[in-house]
Amino acid sequence: MTKAAVFGTGSWGTTFAMILAEAGNRTILWGRRPELVEGIQRAHTNLDYLPGVALPTSLGATTDPAEALDGADFVVLAVPSQSLRLNLAAWREHIPRDAVLVSLMKGVELGTTKRMSEVIREVAGVPEERVAVVSGPNLAKEIAQRQPAATVVACVDEEVAARLQAACHLPPWFRPYTNPDVVGVELGGAVKNVIALAVGVAVGMGMGDNVAAMLMTRGLAEISRLGAALGADPHTFAGLAGMGDLVATCTSPLSRNRTFGERLGRGMTLAEVIAATKQTAEGVKSCESVLALAKKHDIEMPITEVVVGVVHDGMSPSEAGMLLMSRSPKPERYGL
Question: For the chain, what is the domain count?
Answer without folding.
Answer: 2
